[in-house]
Amino acid sequence: MSSTKAPARKGFNGYAATWRFPIIIWQALFFLGPLIFMVAMSFFLVKNYRMEEAFEFKNWQKMLTRGYFWDSYFLTLALATVSTIVTSVLAFPAAFALAFKVSPTVRRWALFLLIIPFFTSYLVRVFSWYVILAESGVVNALLAHIGLGPYTMLNTKFGTIVGYMTLTLPLVVVLQTFALANIDRNLVQAAHNLGCTPWRAVYRVIMPLAKTGLVVAALFCFILSFGDFVSPYYLGGSKPPTLPILIIDTTKSGQQWPRAAVVAVVMMVTLISIAFAALALAYRKRASR
Amino acid sequence: MSNPLVEFKRVAKRFGDFVAVKSMDLSIDPGEFIAIMGPSGCGKTTTLRMLAGLDKPTEGSIYIDGQLMNDVRPHERDTPLVWQSLALFPFLNVRENVEFGLKMRNQDAAVRREKAMDWLDRLGVAEFAGRNVETLSGGQRQRVALARSLVTEPRLLLLDEPLSALDAHLVIRMQSVLTKLQRELGITFVYVTHSQSEAFAMADRVVIMSDGEVAQTAVPRDIYREPANRFVAEFVGRNNIVSGKVSAIEARRVSVESAMGQFSVIADEGRIPAAGADITFVIAADLVEISRTPGDAENTVACSLISEEFIGSVVTLFLETADGDELKVQLQERELVTLDHTSGGTFFLSWQSASAHMLPQ
Amino acid sequence: MNGGFLLSWALRGYTLLLFVFVFAPILFSVVFSFNSARFPTIPLESFTLHWYQTIWADPDVWTAVRNSVIVSVCTAVIATVLGFCTAYTDYRYNFRFKSAYMALVLLPPTIPLIIMALAMLAWFSKIGASGQLWSVIIAHSVLTAPFAMAIVRLRLNQMDKDLESAAWNLGASEWRAMREVIIPFCKPSIISALFLTAAVSFDEFAIAWFVSGLNKTVPVLILEIVQGNIDPQVNAIGTFVFLVSMTLVIIAQVFFTLRQSKAFS
Fold first, then answer.
1. I need a surface site. Which of A213, B140, B257, B296 has the fewest CB within 10 A?
2. In this structure, is residue C170 part of a structural domain?
3. Which residue of A has its CA nearest to C126?
4. Do A124 and C234 touch (CB under 8 A)?
């Protein structure tokens, strides 16, 4: 009914513009500008190590017809998918415990602790894993005490996934906990009253109710894994390279920026499709059966 | 007579498709205590916000002191508002809150401080000057909000349901604080409320709004005894509304044939209806007599009791005629004793013809 | 009942394990930074400050720290200003294409850093601004402004919707009300945003690596050391970086949760 808005004045409002336009200009110049330019760059040519502005499909042809590009593509897709599934599954019991089994104070502290790693150096943490997982590292030294190992964990897919999880696990637990904690407890109670066993209640009541949050958490996990180059490089051995490593190699060593742009655009298209699919799934009304 | 301090001329306010105020004419004299009352969504708060310049009229003009105010921005007018939420600044202490208006007028720090302390003192909350506003009780915060609005010595104070968040016993106390303050300062109060008791207890004149329009503007007694239309009659007080047809006219005495029976009403001079016309009249529930015997009063209806409602010493009885029409009687609790109302049976309601008030058709 | 009890404790134990996984690398990094062994493993060798002495004496580290401080501070200021403007616009105004406006502001953190890095590198070379410290600052501001916006916006949500109108009503112009009411009310969140954006900027390496040229920041330096071989120096620098970012994040958190109580002041 009554609004907090000041009376609308016709014409230019300097006050409103002061708050509205800085970010538009900034993002247009330094966010949209770079992204659009990158797309355009994928059609440029490189001659004698110099980039020429053009509109040719050479880079696209070159990249998309190469087997190694598709190897990288499917490897990256597979790694990110596995990471998403493993992380979501491993995070769920913890999120469940934080949402339902601990006091609000404990939950608040746990979430705070989980947010900290998100803002601390991922690079150093991955390097730490490198040391921990090495042939003569901490894990193998511990296993040797009980007569096992040594196991090779570096330069494997396992190493890559551990690295991804360093990045994604805290975030996924936080997002899942929010999703679960927001469920109406009465509905869970009702399910129990109606004779639902705890396991069935989790599967039939809690997961569907928290679906949106769970899917969004998985989506973030996928995006982060898909775009990360540190773990596959240092812990995964980068053979074959994932798409982000391909971008770095093409940019840093070959000066082939347009080809790197092709890889980046393919990544963007893939991520946007997956994001839309995931959000459609997350917000879809449950079909009646 | 002095010129009006505030004038609304055909003011309308729309938010997109939503009409908050349809067409409003109102004039308020200097020193008046005006209450604007109506159900929620009737446009009363929008009216107040337009006075403060927070909403701009879509049509019509608002004058304050003869000056057209439509395009005057909120901070360029001196129309302090006491907010329903109080809207005290949580990051300032009590004294700084009160000083705010003076600070915006770039007054000297020493002067600001002195005036703020004067007002806090006057409202009896000086001892909390250094406290954070959130540590105060509801009533204390109310006083701080008043002090903050009055410190600039405005000629017009706007109040938007300021007492709605207070406990009942504090409301009564604050009502007397407000009326006393208004009389002493001699400034104009425009007080928006949905509470009849607040409006009738304090205001010189009451404006009843309905659906974005003024339904009636009058002194409290007239609103109560002589509602201008069916809406006011239903909204205010406990009124019995009877509709029928004019069957005979004898000077100002009008006989009415209604579903409940034959009644007579005394019409105002110059508003005497034609025979056969439709007519609606109102009898306030407290002007209805109730008895166990028919008696010989001119307007009598036989009823049975449905329910009763106690509010302190006043009781309202809800009764029903044989045809199912509902009637209300309001009386003192001690009068019930002689009535033996719990034993059922028939009751006879009656009223004087002069007590009935005819509504314009 | 008994089964439920066991399950409940199993879940808590599991959660604890998960926390161990999350914090193990941080803990190991700190422990090994004081360990004399060239290759970090257990059992631990003797306590040493050698690695700290090495980095203390390294002029490259000092340059990188200086660069990182400049980048973080400038990024924090720019991102917080931009974030504040956007949060206030979102709070106060409705306009056409507002959802597009919000998307434009909030999207950057969802785009993989490596893609932003390539795009920024190409764009800055195009406009002749690559390899500068302020190219890193600009890129980081784009990346972190949404965090600042979110923090300030949450604070504005807690504000009584009449507070700004009340200031106008008492004679404050829109600008004056901004200065006397909105900014004081948002102050804790502004401080929080400053620290948090500084923390994000201080740790960011992908974009910094691509656009900083020769002006390495600390994470870029770490990246280059790590690329060479295993060098426990990294643990020492890493511990230092953790310390800085944790401090920043904790300060941010404290201000974020701070209820403005000036009681009995």
1. B296
2. yes
3. A37
4. yes
Query: Are B46 and A1 within 8 A, CB to CB?
Result: yes
DSSP B306-344: EEEEEETTEEEEEEE-TT--EEEEEEEGGGHHHHTGGG-
CA distance C192 to C155: 11
Q: Which residue do the tokens 């005979």 mark?
A: B248
- Domain ranges in chain A? 66-288
**CA gap B80, B158 in Å, rounded:** 6
Q: Give 10-residue mean pLDDT values along chain C (265 residues).
A: 75 93 90 83 81 90 95 97 96 92 92 95 89 92 95 94 95 96 95 94 93 90 82 86 89 78 37
CA-based nearest distance B45→chain A, Å: 7
Please report, to the nearest 10 degrees, the dihedral formed by the alpha carbons of residues C49, C51, C55, C56 taken in order. 10
CA-to-CA dists, residue B60 to B11, B13, B209, angstroms? 4, 9, 18
Burial degree of B297 (CB within 10 A; 0-12, 13-18, 19+): middle
Residue with tokens 């808005």: A5
Contacts of A98 in chain C (CB under 8 A): 15
Distances (CA, A) of A149 to A152, B270, B323, C154, C230: 8, 112, 97, 51, 22
Residue B116 in this model has a pLDDT that exceeds 70: yes
- Which residues, listed in sequence order, are joined to residue B282 by a DSSP beta bridge? B241, B357
First-to-final CA distance of chain A: 41
Whether C216 is covered by a domain: the verdict is: yes
Distance CA A87, CA A170 (A): 10
- Specify the higher pLDDT residue, A247 or B354: A247
Give this prediction's pTM: 0.88
CATH number at residue C148: 1.10.3720.10
Cβ contact (<8 Å) for A1 and B74? Answer: no
Q: Is residue C48 part of a domain?
A: no
**Considering the domain boundaries, does residue C134 fall inside one?**
yes
Q: Write out the residue range of the structural domain in which residue C185 sits.
A: 59-261
Structure tokens at A137: 């590292």
Give the span between the Cα atoms of B119 and B84, in whole angstroms: 20
Contacting residues of C for B78, CB less than 8 Å apart:
171
Query: What is the arithmetic mean of pLDDT over A79-84?
Result: 96
Residue at token pair 């036989």: B302
Q: What is the largest CA-CA distance in chain C?
A: 71
Q: How many residues does chain B have?
A: 361
Residues of C within 8 A of A28 (CB-CB) are: 104
**Among A101, A119, A244, whose Cβ lies nearest the Cβ of C199?**
A119
Which residues are CB-neighbours of A263 under 8 A, at least 6 positions away? A63, A69, A243, A246, A247, A250
**C248–A119 C-beta distance less than 8 A:** yes
Between strands B6-15 and B33-37, the pairing is: unpaired
pLDDT at residue A151, rounded to an integer? 85
Report the 3 state secondary structure along chain A.
CCCCCCCCCCCCCHHHHHHHHHHHHHHHHHHHHHHHHHHHHCCCEEECCEEECCCCCHHHHHHHCCHHHHHHHHHHHHHHHHHHHHHHHHHHHHHHHHHHHCCHHHHHHHHHHHHHHHCCCHHHHHHHHHHHHCCCCHHHHHHHHCCCCCCCCCCCHHHHHHHHHHHHHHHHHHHHHHHHHCCCHHHHHHHHHCCCCHHHHHHHHHHHHCHHHHHHHHHHHHHHHHHCCHHHHHCCCCCCCCHHHHHHHHHHCCCCHHHHHHHHHHHHHHHHHHHHHHHHHHHCCCCCC
Pairing of strands B278-284, B239-250: antiparallel
Would you say the ipTM is above 0.95? no
Identify the architecture of domain A66-288 in CATH. Orthogonal Bundle (1.10)
State how many domains chain C has. 1
Judge: A2–B55 Cβ closer than 8 Å, yes or no.
yes
Nearest in space to B193 (alpha carbons), one of B21, B45, B85, B47 = B45
